[in-house]
Amino acid sequence: MSTSRTDPLTLEVVDLIGTVVARYHEEYEEAAARYRLTGAQARVLGLLAMEPTAMRRIARQLKCEPSNVTGIIDRLEARGLVERRPDPADRRVKIAAATEEGHRTARGLRDALHFAREPLAELSPQERRTLRDLLRRMLGDVRVVPGDVQADA
Amino acid sequence: MSTSRTDPLTLEVVDLIGTVVARYHEEYEEAAARYRLTGAQARVLGLLAMEPTAMRRIARQLKCEPSNVTGIIDRLEARGLVERRPDPADRRVKIAAATEEGHRTARGLRDALHFAREPLAELSPQERRTLRDLLRRMLGDVRVVPGDVQADA
DNA sequence: TATTGTTATACTCTATAACTATA
DNA sequence: TATAGTTATAGAGTATAACAATA
């Protein structure tokens, strides 16, 4: 399989994707830094701005150990961006939720992500559709949309 | 500028790119872990497998402070994957280079990166060309190819 | 017993500042 | 004096193991 590994065209596309990945991260870290957040903190805040989430579930979404989430939430909570709430249904679980200020920060963070807009603005709607379709096929198309549905675990 | 920010098509493309970025990183970390390397170590080893490089330059390419490179190279050197050589031209600089085993590891690492091949294999040559052109335009086309030419500093 | 979140510990990456040896 | 690499230090993310509270 994959006779294409050394094919120049494939290599160039791979290289371009690498560039996209690199630029995406630069911009993400930059935007986070503007709010004095680390990448991990910004990522978690973004999650919580979508939906209050139990610690365990945050760990799954971050693909890290639950013990790490404690510290990240601690730091966000110390800055008033997040709060821990008890789960009425199960007294073992704690649900982390963005505060009002947390939501404001998450909004600002999202707006600061130039990458999401500027480069794509170069492309016409038709071209964006083409890009979308190619990316979909590249990713196998089996994209579970938002909620993540704990397809992990 | 950017009236497209809330346009569903653009949002979907942005989301797809986010998925590409996430998958790319997962695979990278996974491949590195298979060789008991951290992401940073794998990245540096990859660099050095291309070309022996002075400490300062490694820092620029990693976009981190030079002091951090010392530790990363220390750990790679302790495992026999990298060695430090003096620069005949300037006795202040040290040049890090991959050892034979370092080159072998870098090769294995590269081969382990399925992402580079599998997903692209789904696309026909014509589609890959289209994807290449779209990505090029998206990235502004001003891509300085490999060598990095210390376009930073 | 099993699970949730936490604590304790250790390692790596990161930035900052001060140091050394060259230049 | 300026630069290359290092050391020292501190903060953050990470994994592992052990623990309390709850299920």
UniProtKB/TrEMBL annotation, chains A, B:
<dbReference type="InterPro" id="IPR000835">
    <property type="entry name" value="HTH_MarR-typ"/>
</dbReference>
<dbReference type="GO" id="GO:0003677">
    <property type="term" value="F:DNA binding"/>
</dbReference>
<dbReference type="GO" id="GO:0006950">
    <property type="term" value="P:response to stress"/>
</dbReference>
<feature type="domain" description="HTH marR-type">
    <location>
        <begin position="10"/>
        <end position="140"/>
    </location>
</feature>
<dbReference type="GO" id="GO:0003700">
    <property type="term" value="F:DNA-binding transcription factor activity"/>
</dbReference>
<dbReference type="InterPro" id="IPR039422">
    <property type="entry name" value="MarR/SlyA-like"/>
</dbReference>
<protein>
    <submittedName>
        <fullName>MarR family transcriptional regulator</fullName>
    </submittedName>
</protein>
<keyword id="KW-0804">Transcription</keyword>
<keyword id="KW-0805">Transcription regulation</keyword>
<dbReference type="InterPro" id="IPR036390">
    <property type="entry name" value="WH_DNA-bd_sf"/>
</dbReference>
<dbReference type="InterPro" id="IPR023187">
    <property type="entry name" value="Tscrpt_reg_MarR-type_CS"/>
</dbReference>
<keyword id="KW-0238">DNA-binding</keyword>
<dbReference type="InterPro" id="IPR036388">
    <property type="entry name" value="WH-like_DNA-bd_sf"/>
</dbReference>
<dbReference type="Pfam" id="PF12802">
    <property type="entry name" value="MarR_2"/>
</dbReference>
